[in-house]
Structure prediction request, 224 residues.
Amino acid sequence: MAFLGFDVYGTLVDPLAMEGPLRAHVGELAARFATTWRQHQLDSAFRRSLMRRYENFDVVTRDALHHTARLLGVTLSPAAESAMIASYLELPPFPDARPGLTALEEEGHTLVAFSNGVEASLRKLLAHARLLPPLTGVVSVDDVRAYKPDPAVYQHLVARGGQPADHTWLVSANAWDVLGAKSAGLRAAWVRRNAAAPWEGWGIAEPDLVVASLGELSGRLAGS
Prediction:
């Protein structure tokens, strides 16, 4: 049986669902604000990791919120800002998350969350989404103070699982995350939530599996 690390944001829960809570504060800008916030969150994490100027993901998320508000010309009150940060701990799971995880758990695989997020925040988020269990633990990049796709974070997942890299899987809807795992020697499944999205592997690697939903993984990891 395999050791499976599941990306959280964009794979198990939907960060763009922040559009709903944002609407009360920024009106018709809500969808754009949610998308821009997410993009700046990722950009900041990538750049900090490259510069070795690490701050944890809670800090990065708040900084990205501030940057997005400035960029879009929005003024958020302290109360609104606190409400947005709190809502980030209550992001909804994708409909396939719990049934997909449960099916894999029943097959005997070991399932953990593997994320850029801070463990305490992730546990609150995943408990609210009713994904902890079937997930049995949380592996955070905060332990190694670097962000995906730094090879060190995937090596950390392998070490936590106690299995060889070729028996350790990353499952992610983020293609860059899948590519990072493959580059580090792990196996990886790409959850291609957008059917029109092309694979961007730049000749480096290809996913071991491509699925449209987490439910499609069941029965496909036998012998891993």
